[in-house]
């Protein structure tokens, strides 16, 4: 498989429709990995999505593009409460099936970490499914360490999921 050299950049308002489509694809593929359902996500307006993806002083969403096509995304958000504002949270990492195992996820993580440093963050956290060995291995290879395994009870479906919290300490 050829290694993709995507163009990585922050998403903007004009990317909202492409983001919405990719997000629905992600939810269809791994519904348990997202806090929202396909139905909830499908009800979001383009204004809602623009607000979610447009950069602010506390948040950025990176997109990886193969030509004009959005193939992957990853978000970084600063924790809003003053006592933990030096920490960030990596969220929503997803790479379209056809572009996996080409280094795209690693490039998005690197962009997010570089931006976290520029924001003055000292830590970046993330959560992932404890059963997702591939994601855990990827995050470990980029410097994240597991800090906690705890059951998360989903009261909606009576399912019990296990998540791993991982943390990267920035120097």
TrEMBL record:
InterPro entries: Acyl_CoA_acyltransferase (IPR016181), Bact_Acetyltransf (IPR050832), GNAT_dom (IPR000182). SUPFAM superfamilies: Acyl-CoA N-acyltransferases (Nat) (SSF55729). One of its GO terms (molecular function) is acyltransferase activity, transferring groups other than amino-acyl groups. Keywords: Acyltransferase, Transferase. Residues 6-171 form the N-acetyltransferase domain. PROSITE patterns: GNAT (PS51186). PANTHER family: AMINOALKYLPHOSPHONATE N-ACETYLTRANSFERASE-RELATED-RELATED (PTHR43877). This is Protein N-acetyltransferase, RimJ/RimL family. It comes from Paraburkholderia diazotrophica.
